[in-house]
Amino acid sequence: MDVPLWAWAVTVGVILVMLAVDYVGHVRSPHEPTLRESAWWSAGYVGVAVLFGAIVWAVWGSTYGGEYFAGYITEKSLSVDNLFVFVLIMASFRVPRLYQQKVLLIGITIALVLRTVFIFVGAALIENLSWIFYVFGAFLLWTAWSQIRSGSSDDDEEYQENAALRLTRRLLPTTDDYVGDKMTVNVDGRRFMTPMLIVMVAIGTADIIFAVDSIPAIFGLTQETYLVFAANAFSLLGLRQLFFLIDGLLDKLVYLSYGLGAILGFIGVKLVIHALHTNEVPFINGGEHVTAVPEITTPVSLGFIVLTLLLTTVLSLRRTRRDERVALSEATSAREATLGVQDGPEGTIGDAGRTDGADR
To answer: Which of 203, 223, 231, 303 fits a disulfide with 71 by CB distance 3.0 to 4.6 angstroms?
Structure first.
């Protein structure tokens, strides 16, 4: 894929403009976004991402267009998993709803910068170390198993501060309470951080941890650095609006971990097959390519990802509705039983009296 320098410049420019719109139009005046506002802005960001994909399809062909869409959809679906952690972080730090937009936006900006570094490092590894696909594939298979295991666990998750956050707290003085949306404040001539800055670091570093599996995943779908960068950037930029849009729906996606595990496992297998086709490792088939199993094509990858996400969503919503009906039925039965106990003594006495009278 031959991407001229001006195409890179235009893409980066569009991303910077989108960030500027967020900073100037949303964060400057703290407010809690409505569902309608979040829906419109989410649709706008998705529209920009789809338009970009259409341009890639038209200019560079369906192969690269398909790779971009497969990468974007995968990154977007993995970002939903990020939102679960963001919710835990927000709750743990008791971030006022009014300031959550700013926290998310700055945290996402930090993640975007650091992910870009990850992407170029990953591209350099792929360019120089053909066996890295074995490592990426094995890591994704392990991550897929971890996702599936976490989905089968009934334990309530709690947010655990990572090492970077603990080090920040240890080295820098921090206020106990929020001071509006300020990140630092001067107290008696001494500069303190506020919990606002701490939670931004938490969001940014948490997303970097997620990048450890999402970057290898997208490299399993395309080895074009330009497409990897664009797919990551567009999926991250809409994350703030997506948070407020589906905040209340996250608990309904009960099978999300299984779906993401299936996708990561699929891409892990795809990477291992690709590694075998380009094999140069001496102790595997004498350093010769292994082509017994055909490589998985981009249309197959895209179809599997879309079908898995659709099936995961449908089954999750069905399970949620069923659980809600069961809970409602149990609550109704409990209420009727309570009312029956309250009315019971009078009715029982009356019946007993009639019985006693008949006996006499």
So the answer is: 231
In terms of Cα–Cα distance, which of 108, 92, 139, 96 is closest to 265?
Answer: 139
Does the structure show a pLDDT above 70 at 140? yes
Residues 192 and 184: beta-carbon distance below 8 Å: yes
Find residue 191's DSSP bridge partners.
Answer: 186
Count Cα neighbours of 194 within 13 Å in the Cβ-side half-sphere. 16
- Give Dmax (Cα) for the chain: 106
Give the Cα separation of 31 and 22 in Å (integer). 13
- 24-83: per-residue pLDDT in tens? 776 666 667 777 877 888 888 899 999 999 999 999 999 999 999 999 988 888 777 677
How does pLDDT run across 255-300, given as a tens digit for each residue?
A: 878 888 888 888 888 888 888 888 878 878 788 888 888 888 878 8
- Cα gap 87→78, rounded to integer Å: 15
Per the listing, tokens 């006495």 go with 349
The distance of Cα 145 from the centroid of its chain, to the nearest Å, equals: 17
Question: 144, exposed or middle or buried, with CB in 10 Å at 0-12, 13-18, 19+?
Answer: buried
Cα–Cα nearest to 101, from 248, 208, 250, 245: 245
From the centroid of its chain, how far is CA 28? 25
Which two structure tokens, joined as six digits, stand for 118?
A: 């990850």
Best CA proximity match to 82, nearest among 306, 250, 268 = 250
Two tokens at 166? Answer: 């603990």
Tokens of 4: 């001229």
Is residue 349's pLDDT more than 50?
no
Alpha-carbon distance of 193 to 170, in angstroms, equals 12
Q: How far apart are CA 218 and CA 271, in angstroms?
A: 10
3-state secondary structure of 186: strand
Burial of 10 (0-12, 13-18, 19+ CB in 10 A): exposed
Counting every residue written for the chain, the total comes to: 360
Query: Which residues are CB-contacts of 334 (< 8 A; sequence separation ≥ 6)?
Result: none
